[in-house]
Write a structure and sequence with these properties.
- The structure is a homotrimer of 668-residue chains.
- The first copy, chain A, is an alpha/beta fold and 668 residues long.
- Chain A has 17 helices and 29 strands.
- Chain A folds into three domains: 332 residues, TIM Barrel (Alpha-Beta Barrel); 202 residues, Rossmann fold (3-Layer(aba) Sandwich), CATH 3.40.50; 61 residues, Immunoglobulin-like, CATH 2.60.40.
- Chain A has an eight-stranded parallel beta sheet. A seven-stranded mixed beta sheet of chain A has the order 14-13-15-16-21-20-19, with helices on both faces. In chain A, strands 23-24-29-26-27 form a five-stranded antiparallel beta sheet, with helices on one face.
- The longest helix of chain A is centred in the first third of the chain and has 27 residues.
- Chains in contact: A-B, A-C, B-C.
- Chains A and B meet through helix 2 and helix 4 of A and strand 17 and strand 18 of B.
- Chains A, B, C: Keywords: Glycosidase, Hydrolase, Metal-binding, Zinc.
- Chains A, B, C: Belongs to the glycosyl hydrolase 42 family.
Chain lengths: 668, 668, 668
């Protein structure tokens, strides 16, 4: 990519009146340079079975092109037409609550053959209409694709075939999953019951794994079709999304992002984050680091808030100035595109209050005017900002298998795996340590000095051996509790815990206990009485060579360690056998970062610094102030030029930051 | 009506023993003069398909008549017999959770043909048996009729026919509702999916509107049947109910009360309200004002608490004296009947703890004895109390369309449209301003000086034009936020907001934001720091002629107005762009009342005054003390006679009120 | 039984590797003397329809026998194989939420004929294989058997047959249950609707009663089969369980324990209780007293916590020493067996974190080592501890009918019948009064000086007459509110309340009210202002001879009594017309205990004393300290020997108790 894309999603089809030319003119005026169209509008393109009306797409393309706007074509498949549901009711997915009624998007079984037939036909028709148009720079296959919790007969039948291929004889599966428990064993594949009612977490986790494979396969299938039409200069992407808790939140349990991204030319993601007083940059950085790590390359922010989501959960309209902060926040993590969802607010239905750059009145408004200013800046700085590369020394090593198996084997009603991932990431972020994400598909971990490994509850022998070798060869790991507890089938190891990690970690344990709150003996991290505690879960560790960083302060459990650190080979492994207070967690991560020799700036949140090398080979430091008060950086500023102001700095100057302000320092 | 009816519902059929004569004698002794019978007892009247046992009704009528008791016959249709459910299982309604099992009342699809056939047959048989009996003064059709959330195939088919009739071509519907969103559009009526799964709030709201039509039609159908038998001196009524939140609460979403009441001779309502320390008169007044407004006439309180509902939600037994307070509270709003639910407590099933005048022991008890005193007073005062007329200057202008569309487009998880209606009504009530209710069916609004219009989220152009004309011609309106936001199809207007109200209100806005709490700049209403705030929702208003009553105190939103007031034509329109604190709301309503020139007494809650002209042309002032402490009215009492004590007042006397006490001052 | 059984459940079938010999050797080493096997492993024994593999059981028996371990054989029927569900899908039960999917245990309709056919076949095969083996000392039929909420067509059909047999004509049922309410009456048995949707609490309660009969019948059916194979020295038991609220809790609503236990030779129960700081002995005592009362004999604790349940609800690992406290706690109530659930932790599925004596590593660990110490002590003391008999003077008189009918007719959203049972039991327990449980099946109540009767909401005339006669003949009863309110069909009596108890209790009432909190006049129990209150429910009692122990302090209800005490015949009956504060409840129970002449030790919780006569005729006093601090008994210790230390006491010595410590004093 040779420029920063600044774009919007555009739904010509949704608008009450035909405003195509007016909208194109306004986009141009605003400084928008790319428009995503097409997704979700299947019925508009094919109003009746086999009746195609895709010509209007040509008119859109022509018009946008006339205004110099580039276009990304989205395949429309994630929202099926009513006629298709009527014709093939079995397309509607069955989840644990029964079959979904028609209405919402993402209610189809993506592995259903009738769905595939019709999806392929509309994709091909759309590609035939659009692919060779000069406005089109790329394609997005489907949108926020997931398995949607499908567990109907069709999915179940495929799962049984998968199990049969994997295990051959049912008894091998019985053994691997422990199905003899409560007579759940199967001795004839024909007897295999639906997974809906299972109480076997191993089987359930395999089913989750299988359903993520369905997503990978489905997306690759769409990419294969699109690739038949794609021109050499065009790209294919997906709009991946994260877990959702009234906003983007941590790891997506329903997709293997790294696997699914392989079929794409470039990774795409949507990021919906806190706004107003809640704009802290955390989820922008999280989502950006995740998307960048998918292909170890720049990525597209395919959707992000324009005016914000304003509904019953009461999110805030972005403050004046925050649209600019947001845009640079995305770029600071390696995005090559910032695309708003969406151009105009929608006049009805489920997302009426997900406000676009334009309000429903389609007139210029403060957000639109601010976007125009941002666009002008971006256009000018584009050569200096595009293709920012990172060489991070730290990675969050996550696992979708751990995430989903810890839903089955929850350790708390209050928190889960994703809370830990999110907390650890945020802790790093706030101390200005940038990180990649990695999972088991990453072959070479040696590029990292430090891995943070949230509870790796399930892992194959090979995966654990790789992690052990990483430490042995000089790597540093910080492990969460429960790591290494079960094998790849979520069967608890019969060896003393932490089983395959025992030697690497230098301790063993046989017992653990639920706790409310326990202090650590003698406040070993010096965090003060009110912060000196662990909670929720406590493993009773007996050191076997590891240094003890923290012991329980308890009449009975005081004999056991809670937090340990062990030299192993040339590396070091730290283990946290409980859920520490935020203050202790901060100390532990700072310690791990320090011992691993990871460099970090001498500032912390709300002043956030993100660094990289731009396409021209210059080193950029984005410096943000995520607060409503003016801030300054902690100390003297390096020899550099602020690309936004042209101001030059050297070691003698302190950098002032406006509320929600940003500077982009290019090292000179 | 020429006397106050003081009555009970009576379920001869439910009682373990035949106590007909004893009960009639006790009713007579108590002073009861009217008894409602028949509703819910279909199976008793028709124990098997086509086998009728309605003769016992004659015996009941004869016995009650012998004791001089009048009778209201209720059609029994709201609880279907088990044999009917067995014979026609499709009568049992399907709602969003599936088909209802047999057992509860109100589980039938009221538009089902088989149900209609059987309902008509039993109604006719019942009418033939009872209509000409001299005891019978009127009829109640069905009971608390609603659509019960029906959305099965039968209702869906009718809805599609309705849509077809309304729109002709599906594309007209697509446009009106914005169905192109997420490919929900329909191009052949045969493809129309069930509304159950829709994510389109416009379609959903139309369905809600349609289902209310089913209720109107069904009740009119019953009235038509009954009218074939009705004698000239007899009346037909319905027992309407309100929304329910552990007691009667605001507007009923499932019925258009004003439309449905047209078929009735007189409006009826049930009112279940706070008791004991929670007896404040609010819901009695709300329900009374609503019922009286239905036909702008006196009404019947067909059900109200006897001993109260005493169950797991722990309502309180009415305190000694409160039965009297309650009775006069109803009459003070224009009721011509106060009927308890019910005569005797029921010895089993769902309402065992909805205690009647009699406890399960069927003996006289304190409540019964108090009713006897009340009856004696009422009988004596009946000529002076009956047919109280009101000429209110204020109306709450409500909208069932706004109510149901704001369920689809909720602005808060904590509160909804009905909370606002309830809060505004209560604020008026506590400052002793009496109000009517009005909706879009009221042609002449000019009788009112002031309309309070809770968020009128959806309205037709004609409706908004009527309201604009009302202001232009000198009316005053206080509008809630979101008013005028969408058209009659709940499609957001493409004009700058508040669209058709922009000129009337004298401002415009393009943006809004969710908020927790924001103060207003400089405490403009003088309510003090802790009360000076708005919450939940904030529209960012730019005045275009309106006076600004309140601005946000916020670094960014401080440039916008929150509350405005505008002269328009001869009238004035005030607008509240956020949800104000109770103290600010009180000030705003007081201001609107004052500027509109509405008179109100110089007292406030717990002393409540309700006023009217009785059938003899005299002006009555009911004065209540809704508190456990003695109270006095604020100042000198007009020249009047207290009908209860015979005591005479003139300007020099202060009126003392006992705890939960009442005086009825007739202006002399 | 001639020795204390100290045992474990063992699931050879679940283990990833064959460890039979190692496990047997470790059990022997640990001091385990009995092992329960077989239950839940149907699929392992019969992997395909009619294909039996029960031979492995012989190998298990041989191996365990070789190590001198005794065996209890559990029939495997409570977890059905997948092939059975596939073959007979109708076996899967339908409850109010629909049909259960395959997966969990206890998902079958226990009255289904196909299930019975297959269950009988596997039981017979298992018996043939095991019954004559010398290791086998007894059998457990099924496990934690309940009706599982079954209400499918099969159960419904049986229920209708049951009603027909009970009532003959439908109209008799209509009358008994009050089905005329809301037209629910039935005039032809063929019209009888499913009970799922009923709003008639009488019918619902009869259905609950009927479903408990299904359990009684099913267990007796299994016992009949087993008895065909049982040798004279062998026993049959069941593992009954209690209500469950994150641990064992009060009375089981789905089984009539006393009825179902008749078919057993010895009662069995599982008890899961608070651990760590929450180990207070209450539920151990409750469950023990309940199980002992079932057959007025010693009982087996078939399951109790080993390391505890460690999962998302965060229970605590038993502290070092608590395994011993727990074991003696069970024995102190008359248990002849303490069996852990279970030997080893399970490596997968629903109970992975219900930790056994062994952790997943199958190595010795602190819990195992502590069990070994306990075993050694028990083996030595076994002759002195076995067959402890009680002669309690107090009984909790409970009623499953009251429990389930008060679910239909709830008096509070916060608490229910079981909370009262649990609270009253705990109050007795903490003042060191031991109690039996009794229900309507106990013919001779005269053995008790005092009965505590929690709200006996429904009872037959015969039952109430028995209780009245009990008082008349000198017994003492403490009744909860609502006692005697309805007849055996849960129909409210038409007599003035408390109807048949009126004369015995010496008061009557007609009215009651929900309350938040009300003080009692003049703090009659001297508990101080903050504890002087009743809450939730208040009956307004008018004394008719009874002494008033407490009156409401309220402007209106002050004229009524709340708590009364009445001499009747030679006995006394106390009644509590509201829900008192814990402090008042404690006073009332202490008063009742005192007036009834029940002896109790001069100590209270956390020092708990449990007493009995051992098989050798000696009187034992178990003295426990359920606290983390050392304690001493209140005063001088009787002439006795501590069986655990050999230390001798006489009147001059104070008994010191370690934290969570125990002494077993044998009177000398």
């Amino acid at each position: 990519m040779d420029e920063i894309l600044y774009g919007v999603a555009y739904y010509y089809e949704y608008l009450p009146t035909d405003r195509l030319s007016e909208d194109a003119a306004m986009m141009k005026d605003c400084g928008i340079n790319v428009v995503r169209i097409g997704e979700s509008t299947w019925a508009y393109q094919e109003p009746q079975d086999g009746v195609f009306k895709t010509d209007y797409l040509t008119r859109i393309l022509d018009t946008l092109h006339a205004y110099g706007l580039k276009v990304i074509i989205g395949t429309p498949t994630y929202a099926i037409p009513s006629w298709l549901a009527k014709k093939h009711p079995d397309i509607l997915l069955t989840n644990k609550n029964g079959q979904r009624p028609y209405g919402a998007r993402q209610i189809m079984d993506i592995s259903n053959s009738a769905f595939r037939f019709h999806a392929e036909r509309i994709i091909r028709r759309q590609m035939e209409t659009t692919a060779r148009h000069p406005a089109v720079i790329g394609f997005q296959v489907d949108n926020e694709t997931k398995h949607y919790g499908a567990e109907g007969a069709n999915v179940q039948a495929q799962f049984v075939a998968y199990l049969k291929a994997k295990f051959g004889e049912p008894e091998a599966m019985n053994k691997a999953f422990g199905l003899h428990y409560w007579s759940n064993s199967v001795f004839d594949w024909a007897d295999m019951p639906s997974t809906i009612g299972t109480i076997n977490g191993s089987l359930r986790n395999e089913f989750e794994k299988f359903r993520r494979l369905l997503v990978t396969e489905y997306l690759a299938w769409q990419v294969d079709i699109v690739n038949e039409y794609k021109q050499p200069h065009q790209f294919v992407t997906q709009n991946f999304d994260m877990d959702w808790r009234s906003g983007s939140y941590a790891i997506q349990a329903s997709v293997d992002h790294f696997e699914a991204a392989r079929a794409m030319d470039i990774a795409g993601i949507d990021i919906y984050h806190g706004t107003g007083d809640r704009l802290d940059g955390v989820m922008i950085a999280f989502g950006g680091d995740l998307a960048r790590s998918m292909k170890q390359d720049n990525y597209l922010v395919v959707e992000t808030s324009a005016q914000s989501i304003l509904g019953p959960s009461n999110q805030e309209l972005l403050y004046p100035g925050q649209l600019r902060t947001q845009a640079y926040s995305h770029l600071a993590n390696g995005a090559n595109a910032v695309m708003y969802w969406h151009w105009h607010s929608i006049h009805n239905s489920a997302e009426t209050y997900w406000k676009g750059l334009l309000s429903h009145d389609m007139e210029p408004n403060p957000t639109y005017l601010e976007a125009k200013e941002v666009a002008a800046e971006l256009e000018e700085l584009s050569p200096a900002l595009v293709n920012l590369k990172k060489d991070n020394e730290v990675a969050i090593y996550f696992s979708n298998e751990a995430l989903t198996s810890l839903k089955e084997f929850a350790f708390s009603k209050q928190m889960d795996y994703n809370d830990i991932v999110r907390n650890w990431y945020e802790t790093l972020y706030k101390m200005n340590v940038e990180a990649d994400f990695a999972d088991h598909t990453v072959d070479d971990l040696s590029r990292y000095k430090l891995l943070l490994v949230p509870p790796l509850y399930t892992a194959s022998d090979a995966e654990l051996e790789k992690l052990n070798a990483y430490v042995e060869n000089g790597g540093h790991i910080l492990y969460g509790f429960k790591s290494g507890f079960t094998d790849e089938h979520v069967q608890v190891h019969m060896e003393r815990q932490p089983a395959m990690l025992r030697e690497t970690l230098g301790f063993s344990y046989q017992q653990f206990t639920g706790i409310d709150r326990l202090p650590l003996k003698d406040d070993p991290f010096g965090v003060g009485e009110s912060d000196n505690y662990v909670s929720i879960w406590a493993e009773l560790l007996t050191p076997e060579g590891a240094e003890v960083l923290g012991r329980y302060d308890h009449p009975h459990w005081g004999r056991y360690a809670c937090i340990t650190q062990n030299r192993y080979g040339k590396g070091q492994a730290t283990y946290i056998g409980a859920w520490p207070s935020p203050a202790i967690m901060q100390k532990l991560i700072a310690d791990a970062v320090g011992k691993a020799g990871v460099e970090r700036p001498n500032t912390h949140f709300p002043v956030i610094i993100r660094k990289g090398v731009n396409g021209q080979g210059a080193v950029l430091h984005y410096v943000f102030n995520y607060s409503p008060e003016p801030q300054t950086t902690a100390g003297p500023v390096m020899r550099s030029t602020d690309l936004l102001t042209g101001k030059k700095y050297n070691g003698q100057t302190v950098l002032p930051l406006e509320p929600w302000g940003v500077a982009i320092l290019r090292e000179d």
